[in-house]
C-alpha cells in the first residue's frame, strides 16, 4: 500500500468522523428545539376559510355593528388556568358621520378589546379584567384581521372578548362578505353590551375571530406557573406528572417520582431550578394519590 492510498484512507476516516459528529450536533439542537416548543392552544377559531392575510371590502361585508352603546365580541370558556397570547378578529374601524355625511373625526382609531367575565351567562358590565388596543390598517373601506399579542393569565371560567370603539368611531365585526370572494365565518356565541344601560345579551351568530393561548402546568388545582412544555415524543410536563400519579402507591412515592422527573428536566435544560421548585411545591400540596 503506497503513501497516497494511506492518505486517502486517513482522509476518508476523518471525513466520516466529521459527518457523524455533525449529525450528532444537529440531532442535539433538534432535541433542544423540541424540548423548548411551547404548548399553544386554540381557544376559539371561527375564521373558517379566511386567513389572517385576507381582506374584504366594507361595502360588500356584513356583521355586527360596534358602537359606543353596543360592544360586541365572542364568548369563550377555559377549563384550566390559561395564558391568552393573541386575540384577533376581522373588524373595521371608521369615523362616525353626521346626517350630512361629514365624518366627526379626521381618521379612524384602532378598536379596543376588553376582557369581561361572564355573570349569569352574559358579559359582566361592571368588570373589565383587561383592555388592549388592536392593530389597525387605517383604511375605513377595508375589513382586515386586526389583532394584539398579549400575556394574560386567566383562571378557569367563561369570559367575553368585547370589541369597543374609541371616541367618534364606529366599527364592524365581520360575519360574512362577498368580495373578493364569498365568505362566511362560523357560528359562535357572541355577547353584546350597552355600557350606558349595562344591559347585556348573548346571541348565536356568525363572527370571524381567533383567540390563542398557552396552558400552564396545573397539579391538582395548584398553578405552578410553568408552561406545559412539549417534550420529545409529544408528551408534556403534565403527562409526566400524570404517569407519576398513576404509578404511585403513596403520596411520598408520588412526590419522589415528580422530584426525579423534574430533576431530569432541569438537567436537560427544559426547566429552570425555580420552575422545578414550583412544580415540587404543587406536588407536595396535592392530594395524590
What does this structure look like?
This protein is α+β, with helices and mostly antiparallel strands and 289 residues long. It folds into 2 domains: 41-214; 220-285, no CATH class. The chain has helices at 3-35, 237-247, 251-267, 273-285; strands spanning 40-45, 55-57, 61-66, 71-78, 82-95, 112-119, 122-123, 130-133, 142-154, 157-164, 169-177, 183-184, 187-194, 199-206, 209-219, 222-227. Strands 1, 2, 3, 5, 9, 11, 12, 15 and 16 form a 9-stranded antiparallel β-sheet that branches. Strands 4, 6, 7, 8, 10, 13 and 14 form a 7-stranded antiparallel β-sheet that branches. Helix 2 (237-247) packs antiparallel against helix 3 and helix 3 runs antiparallel to helix 4. The termini are far apart.
List the helices and strands and how they pair.
Elements: H1 3-35, E1 40-45, E2 55-57, E3 61-66, E4 71-78, E5 82-95, E6 112-119, E7 122-123, E8 130-133, E9 142-154, E10 157-164, E11 169-177, E12 183-184, E13 187-194, E14 199-206, E15 209-219, E16 222-227, H2 237-247, H3 251-267, H4 273-285
Antiparallel strand pairs: 1-15, 2-9, 3-11, 4-10, 4-13, 5-9, 5-11, 5-15, 6-7, 6-8, 6-10, 11-12, 13-14, 15-16
Amino acid at each position: 500500500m503506497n503513501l497516497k492510498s494511506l492518505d486517502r484512507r486517513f482522509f476518508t476516516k476523518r471525513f466520516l468522523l466529521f459527518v457523524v459528529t455533525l449529525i450528532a450536533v444537529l440531532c442535539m439542537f433538534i432535541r433542544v428545539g423540541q424540548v423548548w416548543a411551547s404548548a399553544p392552544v386554540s381557544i376559539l377559531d371561527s375564521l373558517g376559510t379566511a386567513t389572517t392575510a385576507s381582506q374584504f371590502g366594507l361595502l360588500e361585508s356584513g356583521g355586527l355593528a360596534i358602537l359606543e352603546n353596543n360592544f360586541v365580541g365572542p364568548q369563550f370558556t377555559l377549563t384550566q388556568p390559561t395564558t391568552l397570547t393573541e386575540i384577533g378578529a376581522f373588524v373595521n374601524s371608521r369615523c362616525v358621520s353626521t346626517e350630512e355625511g361629514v365624518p366627526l373625526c379626521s381618521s379612524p382609531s384602532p378598536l379596543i378589546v376588553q376582557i369581561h367575565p361572564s355573570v349569569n351567562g352574559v358579559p359582566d358590565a361592571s368588570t373589565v379584567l383587561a383592555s388592549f388596543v388592536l392593530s389597525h390598517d387605517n383604511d375605513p373601506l377595508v375589513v382586515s384581521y386586526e389583532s394584539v399579542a398579549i400575556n394574560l393569565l386567566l383562571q378557569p371560567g367563561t369570559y367575553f372578548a368585547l370589541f369597543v370603539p374609541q371616541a367618534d368611531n364606529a366599527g364592524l365585526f365581520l360575519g360574512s362578505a362577498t368580495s373578493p370572494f364569498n365568505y362566511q365565518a362560523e357560528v359562535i356565541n357572541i355577547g353584546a353590551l350597552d355600557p350606558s344601560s349595562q344591559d347585556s345579551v348573548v346571541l348565536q351568530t356568525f363572527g370571524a375571530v381567533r383567540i390563542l393561548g398557552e396552558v400552564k402546568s396545573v397539579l391538582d388545582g395548584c398553578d405552578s406557573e410553568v408552561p406545559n412544555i412539549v417534550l420529545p415524543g409529544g408528551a408534556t410536563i403534565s403527562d409526566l406528572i400524570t404517569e407519576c400519579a398513576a404509578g404511585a402507591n403513596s403520596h411520598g412515592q408520588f412526590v419522589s417520582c415528580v422530584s426525579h422527573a423534574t430533576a431530569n428536566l432541569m438537567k436537560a435544560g427544559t426547566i429552570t431550578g425555580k420552575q422545578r421548585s414550583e412544580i415540587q411545591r404543587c406536588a407536595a400540596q396535592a392530594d395524590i394519590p
